[in-house]
Amino acid sequence: MLDPYWSEWLHLLLRLLHVITAIAWIGASFYFVWLDNSLETPPAWKQKKGIKGDLWAIHGGGFYEVAKYQLAPKQMPKHLHWFKWEAYSTWITGMLLLTLMYYVGASSYLIDPSKTDLGTSAVILIGVLSILGGWGVYEGLCRTPLAHRGWQLGLVCVGLLTALAWALSQVMGDRAAYIHIGALIGTCMAGNVWRSIMPAQRALVAAVARGEAPDPRYGLEAKRRSTHNNYATLPVLLIMLSNHFPMTYAHPDGWAILGALMLIGAWARHFFNLRHHGIVKPWILISAFCAFMALAWWAKPAPIQLPDLGEVHVSDQQAVAIVQERCATCHSPTPSDDIFRVSPGGIFLHDQASILRLIDRIEARSIHTQDMPFLNKTGMTDAERALLAGWIAQLRRSDAP
Ligand code: HEC
Protein backbone atom coordinates (compact mmCIF):
# COMPACT_ATOMS: atom_id res chain seq x y z
CA MET A 1 0.00 0.00 0.00
CA LEU A 2 1.33 3.38 -1.04
CA ASP A 3 2.15 5.84 1.74
CA PRO A 4 -0.96 8.07 2.02
CA TYR A 5 1.08 11.27 1.94
CA TRP A 6 2.88 10.43 -1.33
CA SER A 7 -0.25 8.99 -2.80
CA GLU A 8 -1.97 12.37 -2.33
CA TRP A 9 0.80 14.17 -4.25
CA LEU A 10 0.70 11.56 -7.00
CA HIS A 11 -3.05 12.02 -7.09
CA LEU A 12 -2.65 15.78 -7.49
CA LEU A 13 -0.10 15.33 -10.28
CA LEU A 14 -2.24 12.81 -12.18
CA ARG A 15 -5.38 14.88 -11.79
CA LEU A 16 -3.60 17.97 -13.07
CA LEU A 17 -2.24 16.07 -16.10
CA HIS A 18 -5.66 14.55 -16.73
CA VAL A 19 -7.43 17.91 -16.67
CA ILE A 20 -4.78 19.59 -18.86
CA THR A 21 -4.78 16.85 -21.51
CA ALA A 22 -8.59 16.72 -21.45
CA ILE A 23 -8.77 20.47 -22.05
CA ALA A 24 -6.34 20.08 -24.96
CA TRP A 25 -8.38 17.20 -26.43
CA ILE A 26 -11.86 18.62 -26.01
CA GLY A 27 -10.67 22.15 -26.76
CA ALA A 28 -9.20 21.05 -30.11
CA SER A 29 -12.26 18.96 -30.86
CA PHE A 30 -14.66 21.85 -30.10
CA TYR A 31 -12.50 24.13 -32.23
CA PHE A 32 -12.53 21.80 -35.25
CA VAL A 33 -16.29 21.23 -35.02
CA TRP A 34 -16.78 24.98 -34.94
CA LEU A 35 -14.28 25.44 -37.79
CA ASP A 36 -15.92 22.83 -39.99
CA ASN A 37 -19.36 24.30 -39.45
CA SER A 38 -18.28 27.92 -39.97
CA LEU A 39 -16.46 27.57 -43.32
CA GLU A 40 -17.58 29.89 -46.11
CA THR A 41 -17.44 29.52 -49.89
CA PRO A 42 -13.92 30.57 -50.90
CA PRO A 43 -13.06 32.89 -53.82
CA ALA A 44 -12.64 31.29 -57.27
CA TRP A 45 -8.83 31.20 -57.19
CA LYS A 46 -8.89 29.13 -54.02
CA GLN A 47 -11.58 26.83 -55.39
CA LYS A 48 -9.29 26.11 -58.36
CA LYS A 49 -6.71 24.81 -55.89
CA GLY A 50 -9.31 22.38 -54.56
CA ILE A 51 -10.24 24.38 -51.46
CA LYS A 52 -13.82 23.74 -50.39
CA GLY A 53 -14.23 26.33 -47.66
CA ASP A 54 -12.25 29.01 -45.88
CA LEU A 55 -12.59 31.48 -43.05
CA TRP A 56 -10.83 34.37 -41.40
CA ALA A 57 -10.35 34.73 -37.68
CA ILE A 58 -8.55 37.01 -35.29
CA HIS A 59 -6.99 35.68 -32.09
CA GLY A 60 -4.18 36.70 -29.79
CA GLY A 61 -3.36 39.78 -31.82
CA GLY A 62 -3.03 38.10 -35.23
CA PHE A 63 -5.12 37.35 -38.33
CA TYR A 64 -5.55 33.72 -39.36
CA GLU A 65 -6.63 32.41 -42.75
CA VAL A 66 -7.81 28.81 -42.62
CA ALA A 67 -8.74 26.68 -45.61
CA LYS A 68 -10.24 23.20 -45.92
CA TYR A 69 -9.65 21.05 -49.00
CA GLN A 70 -12.46 19.20 -50.73
CA LEU A 71 -10.39 16.03 -50.61
CA ALA A 72 -6.68 16.58 -50.24
CA PRO A 73 -3.95 18.88 -51.50
CA LYS A 74 -2.19 17.77 -54.72
CA GLN A 75 1.05 17.41 -52.78
CA MET A 76 1.52 16.35 -49.19
CA PRO A 77 2.72 19.30 -47.11
CA LYS A 78 6.08 18.91 -45.38
CA HIS A 79 4.54 19.20 -41.91
CA LEU A 80 1.09 17.77 -41.27
CA HIS A 81 -0.21 18.17 -37.71
CA TRP A 82 -2.10 15.23 -36.26
CA PHE A 83 -4.30 15.37 -33.20
CA LYS A 84 -4.19 12.13 -31.31
CA TRP A 85 -1.94 12.39 -28.28
CA GLU A 86 -4.42 14.69 -26.56
CA ALA A 87 -6.96 11.85 -26.62
CA TYR A 88 -4.52 9.09 -25.71
CA SER A 89 -2.93 10.96 -22.83
CA THR A 90 -6.32 11.96 -21.43
CA TRP A 91 -7.27 8.28 -21.41
CA ILE A 92 -3.96 7.11 -19.94
CA THR A 93 -3.93 9.68 -17.12
CA GLY A 94 -7.62 8.98 -16.45
CA MET A 95 -6.98 5.24 -16.13
CA LEU A 96 -3.98 5.83 -13.86
CA LEU A 97 -6.10 8.12 -11.69
CA LEU A 98 -8.89 5.54 -11.55
CA THR A 99 -6.39 2.84 -10.59
CA LEU A 100 -4.68 4.93 -7.92
CA MET A 101 -7.84 6.23 -6.28
CA TYR A 102 -10.35 3.44 -6.67
CA TYR A 103 -8.24 0.27 -7.01
CA VAL A 104 -5.11 0.97 -4.93
CA GLY A 105 -7.27 2.97 -2.51
CA ALA A 106 -10.17 0.49 -2.81
CA SER A 107 -10.93 0.37 0.90
CA SER A 108 -11.44 4.15 0.94
CA TYR A 109 -13.15 4.80 -2.37
CA LEU A 110 -14.40 1.62 -4.06
CA ILE A 111 -15.75 -0.71 -1.42
CA ASP A 112 -18.97 0.08 0.38
CA PRO A 113 -19.45 -2.70 2.94
CA SER A 114 -23.20 -1.96 3.12
CA LYS A 115 -23.59 -3.06 -0.53
CA THR A 116 -21.86 -6.38 -0.94
CA ASP A 117 -19.76 -9.08 0.69
CA LEU A 118 -17.67 -9.51 -2.45
CA GLY A 119 -13.94 -9.18 -1.87
CA THR A 120 -11.96 -6.19 -3.09
CA SER A 121 -10.41 -8.04 -6.06
CA ALA A 122 -13.83 -9.21 -7.23
CA VAL A 123 -15.21 -5.66 -7.20
CA ILE A 124 -12.11 -4.35 -9.01
CA LEU A 125 -12.56 -7.08 -11.61
CA ILE A 126 -16.21 -6.08 -12.08
CA GLY A 127 -15.11 -2.47 -12.54
CA VAL A 128 -12.45 -3.30 -15.15
CA LEU A 129 -14.74 -5.73 -17.01
CA SER A 130 -17.57 -3.19 -17.10
CA ILE A 131 -15.26 -0.74 -18.89
CA LEU A 132 -13.83 -3.26 -21.36
CA GLY A 133 -17.16 -5.06 -21.89
CA GLY A 134 -19.02 -1.78 -22.29
CA TRP A 135 -16.57 -0.67 -24.97
CA GLY A 136 -17.10 -4.02 -26.75
CA VAL A 137 -20.89 -3.55 -26.67
CA TYR A 138 -20.56 -0.03 -28.12
CA GLU A 139 -18.28 -1.28 -30.91
CA GLY A 140 -20.80 -4.05 -31.59
CA LEU A 141 -23.70 -1.57 -31.78
CA CYS A 142 -21.70 0.54 -34.27
CA ARG A 143 -21.69 -2.46 -36.60
CA THR A 144 -25.49 -2.89 -36.60
CA PRO A 145 -27.99 -0.93 -38.72
CA LEU A 146 -28.46 1.27 -35.62
CA ALA A 147 -25.13 2.92 -36.48
CA HIS A 148 -26.87 4.85 -39.26
CA ARG A 149 -29.56 6.22 -36.94
CA GLY A 150 -27.77 8.65 -34.68
CA TRP A 151 -30.68 9.50 -32.40
CA GLN A 152 -31.74 5.94 -31.75
CA LEU A 153 -28.17 4.79 -31.17
CA GLY A 154 -27.69 7.61 -28.66
CA LEU A 155 -30.84 6.67 -26.75
CA VAL A 156 -29.91 2.97 -26.66
CA CYS A 157 -26.45 3.86 -25.34
CA VAL A 158 -27.86 6.13 -22.61
CA GLY A 159 -30.34 3.38 -21.66
CA LEU A 160 -27.62 0.74 -21.42
CA LEU A 161 -25.28 3.05 -19.48
CA THR A 162 -28.05 3.91 -17.02
CA ALA A 163 -28.73 0.20 -16.47
CA LEU A 164 -25.00 -0.39 -15.95
CA ALA A 165 -24.87 2.48 -13.44
CA TRP A 166 -27.66 0.77 -11.51
CA ALA A 167 -25.90 -2.61 -11.62
CA LEU A 168 -22.55 -1.16 -10.53
CA SER A 169 -24.16 0.76 -7.68
CA GLN A 170 -25.29 -2.62 -6.26
CA VAL A 171 -21.70 -3.77 -5.76
CA MET A 172 -19.54 -0.66 -5.27
CA GLY A 173 -19.66 2.77 -3.65
CA ASP A 174 -21.99 5.22 -5.43
CA ARG A 175 -19.17 7.55 -6.35
CA ALA A 176 -17.16 4.66 -7.80
CA ALA A 177 -20.17 3.56 -9.88
CA TYR A 178 -20.47 7.06 -11.38
CA ILE A 179 -16.77 7.30 -12.19
CA HIS A 180 -16.81 3.90 -13.92
CA ILE A 181 -19.55 5.11 -16.27
CA GLY A 182 -17.49 8.23 -17.01
CA ALA A 183 -14.41 6.07 -17.60
CA LEU A 184 -16.39 3.79 -19.93
CA ILE A 185 -17.65 6.68 -22.08
CA GLY A 186 -14.12 8.16 -22.11
CA THR A 187 -12.75 4.77 -23.21
CA CYS A 188 -15.25 4.59 -26.11
CA MET A 189 -14.25 8.13 -27.13
CA ALA A 190 -10.50 7.44 -27.02
CA GLY A 191 -11.20 4.10 -28.74
CA ASN A 192 -12.94 5.99 -31.55
CA VAL A 193 -9.83 8.08 -32.08
CA TRP A 194 -7.56 5.04 -31.94
CA ARG A 195 -9.54 2.46 -33.92
CA SER A 196 -11.64 4.54 -36.34
CA ILE A 197 -10.53 8.13 -36.78
CA MET A 198 -6.75 7.63 -36.95
CA PRO A 199 -6.90 4.65 -39.38
CA ALA A 200 -9.22 6.64 -41.64
CA GLN A 201 -6.82 9.56 -41.65
CA ARG A 202 -3.86 7.28 -42.32
CA ALA A 203 -5.71 5.76 -45.29
CA LEU A 204 -6.47 9.24 -46.57
CA VAL A 205 -2.83 10.32 -46.33
CA ALA A 206 -1.61 7.08 -47.93
CA ALA A 207 -4.03 7.48 -50.85
CA VAL A 208 -2.87 11.05 -51.45
CA ALA A 209 0.77 9.92 -51.33
CA ARG A 210 -0.02 7.30 -54.00
CA GLY A 211 -1.85 9.92 -56.02
CA GLU A 212 -5.13 7.98 -55.74
CA ALA A 213 -8.61 9.11 -54.82
CA PRO A 214 -9.25 8.06 -51.17
CA ASP A 215 -12.07 5.62 -50.43
CA PRO A 216 -14.87 7.82 -49.03
CA ARG A 217 -16.10 4.95 -46.82
CA TYR A 218 -13.30 5.50 -44.31
CA GLY A 219 -14.00 9.19 -44.04
CA LEU A 220 -17.71 8.58 -43.41
CA GLU A 221 -17.11 6.14 -40.55
CA ALA A 222 -14.54 8.50 -39.00
CA LYS A 223 -17.03 11.38 -39.25
CA ARG A 224 -19.71 9.26 -37.54
CA ARG A 225 -17.41 8.35 -34.67
CA SER A 226 -16.28 11.91 -34.28
CA THR A 227 -19.95 12.98 -34.05
CA HIS A 228 -20.46 10.38 -31.29
CA ASN A 229 -17.49 11.85 -29.43
CA ASN A 230 -18.90 15.32 -29.87
CA TYR A 231 -22.22 14.42 -28.27
CA ALA A 232 -20.50 12.49 -25.48
CA THR A 233 -18.34 15.38 -24.29
CA LEU A 234 -20.93 17.20 -22.17
CA PRO A 235 -22.25 14.03 -20.48
CA VAL A 236 -18.69 12.96 -19.62
CA LEU A 237 -17.81 16.35 -18.17
CA LEU A 238 -21.04 16.35 -16.14
CA ILE A 239 -20.20 12.91 -14.72
CA MET A 240 -16.64 13.93 -13.83
CA LEU A 241 -17.88 17.07 -12.05
CA SER A 242 -20.74 15.26 -10.32
CA ASN A 243 -18.13 13.53 -8.18
CA HIS A 244 -17.93 16.76 -6.18
CA PHE A 245 -21.69 16.86 -5.69
CA PRO A 246 -22.99 14.12 -3.40
CA MET A 247 -26.63 15.07 -4.00
CA THR A 248 -26.17 13.35 -7.40
CA TYR A 249 -24.24 10.12 -6.76
CA ALA A 250 -25.33 9.58 -3.15
CA HIS A 251 -29.04 9.88 -4.01
CA PRO A 252 -30.94 6.58 -3.54
CA ASP A 253 -31.72 6.74 -7.30
CA GLY A 254 -28.30 8.09 -8.25
CA TRP A 255 -28.23 5.88 -11.36
CA ALA A 256 -31.43 7.55 -12.66
CA ILE A 257 -29.94 11.00 -12.03
CA LEU A 258 -26.89 9.89 -14.01
CA GLY A 259 -29.08 8.83 -16.95
CA ALA A 260 -30.91 12.16 -16.86
CA LEU A 261 -27.64 14.12 -16.70
CA MET A 262 -26.35 12.26 -19.78
CA LEU A 263 -29.50 13.06 -21.75
CA ILE A 264 -29.51 16.71 -20.70
CA GLY A 265 -25.81 17.08 -21.55
CA ALA A 266 -26.20 15.59 -25.04
CA TRP A 267 -29.33 17.67 -25.66
CA ALA A 268 -27.50 20.89 -24.71
CA ARG A 269 -24.62 19.91 -27.02
CA HIS A 270 -27.19 19.55 -29.84
CA PHE A 271 -28.00 23.27 -29.55
CA PHE A 272 -24.38 24.23 -30.23
CA ASN A 273 -24.02 21.73 -33.08
CA LEU A 274 -27.06 23.24 -34.81
CA ARG A 275 -25.97 26.79 -34.08
CA HIS A 276 -22.66 26.25 -35.87
CA HIS A 277 -24.78 25.56 -38.96
CA GLY A 278 -26.63 28.85 -38.50
CA ILE A 279 -29.71 27.11 -37.07
CA VAL A 280 -30.44 28.80 -33.76
CA LYS A 281 -33.04 27.04 -31.63
CA PRO A 282 -32.88 28.69 -28.21
CA TRP A 283 -35.67 26.46 -26.90
CA ILE A 284 -33.26 23.53 -26.93
CA LEU A 285 -30.98 25.27 -24.45
CA ILE A 286 -33.96 26.58 -22.45
CA SER A 287 -35.54 23.14 -22.25
CA ALA A 288 -32.18 21.62 -21.23
CA PHE A 289 -31.95 24.18 -18.43
CA CYS A 290 -35.56 23.49 -17.37
CA ALA A 291 -34.88 19.74 -17.38
CA PHE A 292 -31.79 20.35 -15.23
CA MET A 293 -33.86 22.33 -12.70
CA ALA A 294 -36.70 19.79 -12.82
CA LEU A 295 -34.15 17.06 -12.06
CA ALA A 296 -32.88 19.06 -9.08
CA TRP A 297 -36.46 19.47 -7.85
CA TRP A 298 -37.30 15.80 -8.32
CA ALA A 299 -34.10 14.65 -6.61
CA LYS A 300 -34.65 16.80 -3.50
CA PRO A 301 -34.56 14.26 -0.71
CA ALA A 302 -37.67 13.79 1.37
CA PRO A 303 -37.03 14.72 5.00
CA ILE A 304 -35.37 11.56 6.26
CA GLN A 305 -37.04 9.48 8.90
CA LEU A 306 -34.84 9.57 11.95
CA PRO A 307 -35.78 8.00 15.24
CA ASP A 308 -38.25 10.29 17.02
CA LEU A 309 -36.57 11.79 20.04
CA GLY A 310 -39.68 13.44 21.38
CA GLU A 311 -39.03 16.63 23.29
CA VAL A 312 -35.49 15.88 24.46
CA HIS A 313 -33.11 18.78 24.74
CA VAL A 314 -29.72 18.08 23.12
CA SER A 315 -26.89 19.78 24.94
CA ASP A 316 -23.98 21.40 23.10
CA GLN A 317 -21.54 18.98 24.75
CA GLN A 318 -23.55 15.99 23.56
CA ALA A 319 -23.66 17.20 19.94
CA VAL A 320 -20.00 18.26 19.86
CA ALA A 321 -18.99 14.88 21.29
CA ILE A 322 -20.83 13.07 18.48
CA VAL A 323 -19.14 15.13 15.76
CA GLN A 324 -15.76 14.75 17.43
CA GLU A 325 -16.14 10.99 17.62
CA ARG A 326 -17.61 10.40 14.15
CA CYS A 327 -16.07 13.16 12.02
CA ALA A 328 -12.89 14.49 13.60
CA THR A 329 -10.96 11.28 12.95
CA CYS A 330 -10.66 12.65 9.40
CA HIS A 331 -11.61 16.31 9.78
CA SER A 332 -9.13 17.72 12.26
CA PRO A 333 -5.72 19.38 12.06
CA THR A 334 -4.23 16.03 13.11
CA PRO A 335 -6.48 13.28 11.76
CA SER A 336 -6.16 9.83 13.30
CA ASP A 337 -7.58 8.05 10.23
CA ASP A 338 -5.26 5.50 8.59
CA ILE A 339 -5.79 6.90 5.06
CA PHE A 340 -6.70 10.54 5.42
CA ARG A 341 -3.64 12.07 7.09
CA VAL A 342 -4.68 15.55 6.02
CA SER A 343 -8.30 16.60 6.51
CA PRO A 344 -10.18 15.95 3.23
CA GLY A 345 -11.85 19.07 1.91
CA GLY A 346 -9.62 21.07 4.27
CA ILE A 347 -12.38 21.40 6.87
CA PHE A 348 -12.00 20.95 10.63
CA LEU A 349 -14.72 19.60 12.90
CA HIS A 350 -12.71 19.03 16.06
CA ASP A 351 -14.00 21.81 18.35
CA GLN A 352 -17.25 23.64 19.00
CA ALA A 353 -16.23 26.86 17.21
CA SER A 354 -15.33 25.04 13.98
CA ILE A 355 -18.46 22.90 14.21
CA LEU A 356 -20.69 25.97 14.57
CA ARG A 357 -18.99 27.64 11.62
CA LEU A 358 -19.63 24.62 9.38
CA ILE A 359 -23.07 23.76 10.73
CA ASP A 360 -24.76 24.08 7.29
CA ARG A 361 -22.27 21.71 5.66
CA ILE A 362 -22.55 19.24 8.55
CA GLU A 363 -26.31 19.25 8.11
CA ALA A 364 -26.02 18.81 4.34
CA ARG A 365 -23.63 15.85 4.47
CA SER A 366 -24.55 13.98 7.64
CA ILE A 367 -28.31 14.67 7.85
CA HIS A 368 -29.52 15.35 4.30
CA THR A 369 -27.36 13.29 1.94
CA GLN A 370 -25.91 11.16 4.77
CA ASP A 371 -22.78 10.40 2.75
CA MET A 372 -20.62 11.56 5.67
CA PRO A 373 -18.91 10.03 7.56
CA PHE A 374 -17.22 8.85 4.35
CA LEU A 375 -18.61 5.34 3.65
CA ASN A 376 -19.68 5.58 7.30
CA LYS A 377 -16.21 4.45 8.30
CA THR A 378 -16.70 5.65 11.89
CA GLY A 379 -20.07 3.89 12.20
CA MET A 380 -22.36 6.84 12.95
CA THR A 381 -25.79 5.60 14.04
CA ASP A 382 -29.24 6.89 13.03
CA ALA A 383 -29.86 7.86 16.65
CA GLU A 384 -26.77 10.06 16.56
CA ARG A 385 -27.88 11.67 13.31
CA ALA A 386 -31.27 12.32 14.91
CA LEU A 387 -29.64 13.93 17.96
CA LEU A 388 -27.48 16.08 15.69
CA ALA A 389 -30.52 17.10 13.60
CA GLY A 390 -32.38 17.96 16.83
CA TRP A 391 -29.47 20.07 18.06
CA ILE A 392 -29.23 21.95 14.75
CA ALA A 393 -32.99 22.63 14.87
CA GLN A 394 -32.59 23.97 18.41
CA LEU A 395 -29.78 26.29 17.28
CA ARG A 396 -31.93 27.56 14.42
CA ARG A 397 -34.84 28.25 16.76
CA SER A 398 -32.68 30.18 19.22
CA ASP A 399 -31.16 32.15 16.31
CA ALA A 400 -34.59 33.16 15.02
CA PRO A 401 -35.62 36.66 16.10
C1 HEC B 1 -13.12 8.43 6.91
C2 HEC B 1 -12.90 9.81 6.76
C3 HEC B 1 -14.05 10.78 6.91
C4 HEC B 1 -14.88 10.91 7.99
C5 HEC B 1 -14.90 10.08 9.26
C6 HEC B 1 -15.74 12.01 7.69
N1 HEC B 1 -15.43 12.53 6.45
FE1 HEC B 1 -16.15 14.24 5.61
N2 HEC B 1 -14.90 14.03 4.02
C7 HEC B 1 -14.15 12.93 3.77
C8 HEC B 1 -13.65 12.99 2.41
C9 HEC B 1 -12.80 11.94 1.75
C10 HEC B 1 -14.11 14.20 1.86
C11 HEC B 1 -13.86 14.75 0.46
C12 HEC B 1 -14.73 14.11 -0.55
C13 HEC B 1 -16.13 14.64 -0.60
O1 HEC B 1 -16.36 15.85 -0.43
O2 HEC B 1 -17.02 13.83 -0.86
C14 HEC B 1 -14.89 14.83 2.90
C15 HEC B 1 -15.48 16.06 2.77
C16 HEC B 1 -16.33 16.60 3.70
C17 HEC B 1 -16.90 17.92 3.61
C18 HEC B 1 -16.48 18.99 2.60
C19 HEC B 1 -17.26 19.02 1.39
C20 HEC B 1 -18.54 19.80 1.60
O3 HEC B 1 -19.58 19.18 1.39
O4 HEC B 1 -18.48 20.98 1.98
C21 HEC B 1 -17.77 18.06 4.66
C22 HEC B 1 -18.62 19.26 5.02
C23 HEC B 1 -17.71 16.83 5.43
N3 HEC B 1 -16.82 15.97 4.82
C24 HEC B 1 -18.45 16.59 6.57
C25 HEC B 1 -18.29 15.48 7.39
C26 HEC B 1 -19.05 15.23 8.60
C27 HEC B 1 -20.14 16.14 9.13
C28 HEC B 1 -18.59 14.08 9.13
C29 HEC B 1 -19.09 13.38 10.37
C30 HEC B 1 -20.49 13.14 10.48
C31 HEC B 1 -17.52 13.59 8.27
N4 HEC B 1 -17.37 14.46 7.22
C32 HEC B 1 -16.74 12.46 8.52
C33 HEC B 1 -13.82 11.93 4.68
C34 HEC B 1 -14.41 11.79 5.94
The poorly predicted ranges are none
What count of structural domains?
A: 2
The strand line-up of the biggest sheet is 1-2
The total of beta strands comes to 2
Rg measurement, Å: 26 Å
Largest sheet composition = 2 strands, antiparallel
Beta-strand content bin: under 5%
Average pLDDT taken over every residue: 90
Spell out the helices and strands N to C: HHEEHHHHHHHHHHHHH
Helix content: 55-70%
In one word, what is the shape? Answer: elongated
Q: How far apart are the termini?
A: 54 Å
Bound molecules: heme C
Query: Structural class per helix/strand content?
Result: mainly alpha
Number of helices: 15
Protein name: Urate oxidase N-terminal domain-containing protein
InterPro entries: Cyt_c-like_dom_sf, Urate_ox_N
Keywords: Membrane, Transmembrane, Transmembrane helix
GO molecular function, one term: heme binding
Can you characterise this structure?
- GO terms for molecular function: electron transfer activity; heme binding.
- InterPro entries: Cyt_c-like_dom_sf, Urate_ox_N.
- It comes from Nitrincola tapanii.
- The chain has two domains: 216 residues, no CATH class; 84 residues, no CATH class.
- The model has no long low-confidence stretch (mean pLDDT 90).
- Helix content is 65%, strand content 4%.
- It binds heme C.
- The site of heme C (HEC) has 22 residues, from helix 14.
